[in-house]
Design a protein that fits this description.
Elements lengths: L1 H21 L65 E7 L8 E8 L2 E8 L2 E4 L6 E7 L6 E7 L8 E7 L7 E7 L8 E8 L16 E6 L4 E3 L6 E9 L12 E7 L4 E7 L4 E8 L13 E6 L9 E6 L2 E6 L9 E2 L6 E9 L2 E10 L3 E8 L2
Parallel strand pairs: 1-7, 8-14, 15-22
Antiparallel strand pairs: 1-4, 2-3, 2-5, 5-6, 8-11, 9-10, 9-12, 12-13, 16-20, 17-18, 17-19, 20-21
Length: 376
């Protein structure tokens, strides 16, 4: 009996020691790689205890409890580019009253480019290329145009130059009105008009190759165009058909001369005949565009056996049109500044004044005709 009691006491003692050696379940070490209970990397759990079987609601990353406003990211302020400073101050007044002209338009023409703008109350600030020489013209409703043919723009860093122009009032019921039709006698809805002053020196020459007093793009669904006022004198006027964007159409230009006395006017109907706009792609024997930077390229387009005819050649460079007289302005496609008559023509190409190509081409009426020519 005593032996059985001792065996029972011994078994109870061993069980007690084993129980205390195990420890409590809350003291088990965390799984490998998991943060310790007080590790700052651990995501905070739900506040307060949860009932058995309940699932804790987790907040999506970057959100807050209802009723708390989220921060709204503010866009960074954008600083607008400063407009170029004016280096020419243009003052425009009436020649009779010396009062400022309420509203006017100006155009500054230089080699290969034209800058335009408006002014009001007799003043406009012009930002022109430094040290350039420009032909400045000013127009205003009810006045004849004024101009400064050889305006010298100040160099960079110099004080602005002040230029004053006095405009004379235009006489009523004078000037030139043209109604322009295409070969089908349909009104031409868009044109470009160039006006040139005629003198004893240029009257019998190619006056249209000189500097225009002004150039205007006009639109009229009925084809009727009242030209800008012109002071008394002799003028040459050229009208070119364009589309709504100002691109030339393959129609021959209208070229007229007018003698204005200040008390007379002209009203005429004009029909533009079919023409052709040849687009010339000049390449080397290797197929590369002919580059005038490697040797000046002279272009001549004339009737076979006929005399040479000077003309401007136009090209698009960096989104703008440039032109050169009897020269290739740069590598790429080039076309004449106005349409030419359809038929057989001869193209002469010289490189550094040496003949490089002489070729006849047949131009078709009413087309913009692309020609790829290899210049040896």
């Amino acid at each position: 009996m005593r032996s059985a009691l001792l065996l029972l006491l011994l078994a109870l003692g061993v069980a007690a020691v084993a129980f205390w050696a195990r420890g409590s379940p809350g003291d088990e070490p965390p799984p490998a790689g998991a943060p310790a209970p007080d590790d700052p990397r651990r995501e905070p759990g739900p506040a307060g205890p949860t009932e058995p079987g309940a699932v804790a609601r987790q907040q999506p990353a970057g959100t807050r409890e209802a009723g708390t406003a989220l921060p709204v990211p503010q866009p960074e302020p954008v600083t607008p580019e400063a407009a170029p400073a004016a280096n020419v101050e243009l003052l425009v007044r009436s020649a009779t009253t010396h009062e400022p002209v309420a509203a006017f338009r100006w155009a500054a023409r230089m080699e290969g480019a034209v800058l335009r703008g408006t002014g009001g109350e007799g003043f406009a600030g012009l930002a022109l290329p430094a040290a350039a020489r420009v032909h400045l013209t000013v127009e205003a409703a009810g006045y004849t145009p004024g101009s400064e043919p050889e305006l010298a723009v100040p160099p960079a860093g110099a004080a602005p130059r002040r230029v004053g122009l006095f405009l004379s009032p235009a006489a009523a019921a004078t000037g030139v009105t043209l109604t322009v039709y295409d070969p089908a006698r349909m009104p031409v809805a868009a044109v470009r008009v160039d006006a040139f002053a005629l003198t004893a020196e240029n009257r019998d020459l190619a006056w249209h190759l000189g500097t225009a007093l002004w150039s205007r793009r006009r639109g009229a669904t009925d084809g009727r165009y009242v030209l800008s006022e012109l002071a008394p004198g002799d003028y040459g006027v050229r009208v070119l058909a364009t589309d709504a964007e100002g691109t030339l159409l393959p129609l021959l230009p209208c070229v007229r001369t007018f003698a204005l006395t200040g008390s007379n006017g002209f009203v005429e109907d004009v029909t533009l005949e079919p023409g052709c706009l040849p687009e010339l792609e000049l390449v080397t024997a290797a197929g590369a565009p002919l580059d005038p930077a490697r040797g000046a390229v002279t272009l001549g387009l004339r009737l076979p056996g006929g005399p040479a005819v000077s003309r401007y050649w136009v090209q698009q460079q960096d989104g703008r049109l440039v032109r050169a007289l009897d020269q290739l302005p740069g590598p790429g496609v080039v076309w004449p500044a106005e349409a030419v008559a359809p038929g057989r023509w001869q193209l002469d190409v010289l490189v550094d004044e040496k003949p490089a190509l002489q070729q006849q081409i047949v131009l078709r009426a009413g087309e913009r005709q692309r020609e790829r020519l290899v210049v040896p």
